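Cross-posted from the bioinformatics board.
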Amino acid sequence: MGEETEIVGRILGTEDATPLLFWVAIAPGQHLQLDDVIAVDRIMPTGETITAYGVVGQVRARHEGAKFQSDVFMIADGRLPAEVSEAAEIQLTRVVPETFVPPLPGEPVRKATDSERDVALDFADVERRLPAGLSRENEPIYLDLDFVDGTKGAHVNISGISGVATKTSYATFLLYSIFNSGVLGASATNTKGLIFNVKGEDLLFLDHDNTSLTPDQRARYGFLDLEPHPFTSVGIMAPPRPGDPNATPQTGARQVGVEPYFWTIAEFCEQGLLPFLFADAEDERQQYTIVVRSVTEQLRRCARTGDTSDGAVSINGVRVRTFEKLVEVIEDILIPEDPDDYVDAKWSGRAVGGGTINAFVRRLSGSTKYMSQLIRADVNNATRYQLDLDKNQLTVVDIHQLHDRAKRFVVGVVLQQAFAAKEASGVADPLQFIVLDELNKYAPRDSSSPIKEILLDVAERGRSLGIILIGAQQTASEVERRIVANSAVRVVGRLDSAEAGREQYGFLPGLQRQRATILKPGSMYLAQPRLPVPLLVEFPFPAWATRSSEANLAGTIDHKSLGTKDMSDPFDEVQ
Amino acid sequence: MRFAVEAWSPEYGVSGDESQLDEHAEPVDLDVEVAAKSWEPIRASTLDTIERVVFVDGVRRIDARIWVDDGGQSRQGVCASVAAGAVVCTPQKATVTEVAVFRGFFTQPLEKAENIQTKHGDYVYVPCASDRPEDIYLGIHDQMTSLETSLQVESSEADPKGESDGGDLIVFDGPLRGRNSPNSVGYVKTQHVQYLPDSHQPILGRLSAGERTPLFHIGGRFGRYSWYLRLPSEQTHPLAGIVRCEVAAVGPPSEAIALAVRTSGVLPWYGSEPHKDSRAPQNLYPIAGLENQLRHRLGDPLVLERALRNAAS
């Protein structure tokens, strides 16, 4: 900040300068562009210097001296004298010391660079800086880890259009940064991540080098003090192939290092997972939820009282090894062959009519074909296929080929298990990060379900338990408000223009909203509690493969025979 | 020096009218370019390219009327701001190159009169012939003219391409009133005085757009060659779009004729249109643009008046 600092402009006097928003006239030969960081001083009567920092939110240029629109032609013809004037709107990021006075018209404005930029963007006082991306000039942009790990706040929410917003890529980048930047210190090794793979086989190759990573993009990791390499400790879990008695995982391009996951009948009964089969089981208006509760209780009783060492459960003397069988047994109990027979009220619940029981049975048997590969005890050593989130640092749970009902079941159950484990341990450390896309499917704005309850629990209590949700969705407006509201960090990729106008994006000032509709892949708006203005960040191209075509699989896979689509690379523009 | 600022708004009282500046009853000689009996409209040669032209103009404004205490006697005075500037027009860009601002305190010669110092600059004491409004007006106008003359108008030596021969055309807004620098043309927008005899006056009505009359000589204090030119416009009356140009009669008539040819070729290009300028087409675009900037540079009249009142108290 020496005397020689170049002046890029001066505070405008023809527009109101306010403490939070002011305009800078750009000096001839200088320029300011969107997202530039600037600083301006004001000397108070006491002699104290107050420095206001801000980012450029808008830049405009106009002819001074022109009255009519057509004057521009005469100005270009050399018939009318006029000057081109440029001005930039500055959105305040900080004022040091905190005295909210407007900068005075005429005061010289300088670009904030290096250490002053850190002060301007409030990185300087952050003890634990989590690299969150780069500015367009490849300067690092940080998040305060205190607002991610639950110390002061937790959870990240990412919105944006599918395909171009690169939500999942950014989520994996954040995870990578959390694991590898050293910001967590020694506890980084024990910190765990869980990602649900909801689309294609995109996330099944996180442990492979990305063959599309260019040297330029590789170099960008250096600006963040990160090494570009794939995730090291990754467990890939996929559901078993339907109808396969050996429960081999159902994956296409990736065949090696994938483990199947499913729940045994015993776990299903013991842990009371039945409600997760019913998307609306928590909805009190539904009569049949009484039946769900009763049956869940009875199944749990059966599992606890009988032998479950092989994963099977005996119900009323029948050994149940498959989900079909389970459904059959429950049906037999609830709907006796002789209509005059008495239905066990322990199973049906008290004073429940036949119609309600039928509604339950209809829904239950409707789920059979989607669930049978996930809930079973017909495999040798069935109990060893439990999901273990602690085995690897990063666990990828593939659900992309599952039916919606099965997806909800898996997500709900996995979240509940993670939550229960954390509740049992009673300490937040080590942290468990959970990446879940399509939040609108699991926690929709206007309905209730067991999964939504779990997600709400995570959002509201996860902070103290050390469960951090990195949630993503196309449209935040369709997601339960409390989940978005509880996220300390909001990230926005490219938005649909109708969506960008919704109140959920109130943290984006008008111009940023407009710009969010044209963000290119690899660019996001990052809003964090320390700064009143969201920052535009770019993140480096993933160093880990985000699809089979990017992974070096040594030609072992024939993409055509697998029917995998050769998708256009959403990062094309970045390279 | 003690003085007070008149409470009335400065618009009242001293009035200025350009017609006071016009010279009357000066001898006119029509036989300069062609013989008086064969006067016909002359079509201006069409130009392939528009050459570099410099327009010079000035503006003035009365900021306050004041009363000066002259040993018990109250004397009238006027505080006025004048500005002069030049705009250089090339086919690519019109640029205001020179602007000078002068603030003066105009009154009759007074023993104790001195400059008035205000927060926003000094009003320099300028003695006028008397405190009659006409004399004060002339005093202000003379300041403006000398400010215009003092501008360092770029000559073609500074033009690296040297495209124009014999220097840039310099067009002064208003009569030349004795200015005789080379290539200078006075440009008179309004016609208060009839210079041509009645026998020749109708030729003005016959001029088509871009046509001019032959040169004629105007005698008197400032001898000059002059001609009329019609700018392109809707011809609602015989004198619509007519302007009068003049050059100082210092060189031979052939030089003046050459200048008339150049000027008449150039000026129609800069003529304004009625929906953009209330004085179209005579108020040329560059001059209108320059005047806007100059008026702006005069400063905010309310701020200046307040500064004068503060200085008076």
